[in-house]
Amino acid sequence: MVMDSGDLERLAEDMLTQRIITSDAYCAECGYNLRTLPGAGLCPECGSRYNTRPVIKSGIFYPHMIEFPIGDWSAGMLTMAAAVGFTYWGAKPLVPWSLIVAVVFLLLSVLYLRLAWRHTARFLHFRGIQRRADEDY
Ligand SMILES: [Zn+2]
Questions:
Q1: pTM of the predicted model, to two decimals?
Q2: Are 62 and 30 in contact (CB under 8 A)?
Q3: CA Rg, the chain, in Å?
Q4: Which residue in 3, 26, 44, 91 has a CA-CA distance of 20 to 30 Å to 123?
Q5: What is the pLDDT of residues 46-89, one digit of tens each?
Q6: Ligand 1 center to 87 CA (angstroms)
Q7: How many other CB atoms are there within 10 angstroms of residue 56's CB atom?
Q8: Who surrounds ion ligand 1 at CB < 5 A?
Q9: Rounded distance, CA 97 to CA 86, Å?
């Protein structure tokens, strides 16, 4: 019998569903504590799929993973400052390449700030779950 990667995947899933979660791991959707539940499955509270397998790890978060995205905000602010600087420097007298560089920095800052916003929303979501989990104990 030859096993392909799909078979291995299913075998790993089967082994995981027989192993229980031994530490606090919370559902990433509703914050339900998945401790003592199988390593992969559906959240009993909200029905979201979760998987604690190290390579996959989806639908869960561990408390130590909660970090404010300070790097994303810093990158967004720095690239925004660079955009303003190149705009100021290139406006009078008109220096076209400086304005082009300013536009590039502006686009970068929009991307970074959007990322920072999304990561901050996720951070706040997880913090809320953490707070609720702490109240339960
Ligand atoms: Zn849930």
A1: 0.60
A2: no
A3: 23
A4: 44
A5: 999 998 876 666 787 777 777 899 999 999 999 999 999 999 99
A6: 48
A7: 14
A8: 27, 29-30, 32, 43, 45-46, 48
A9: 9
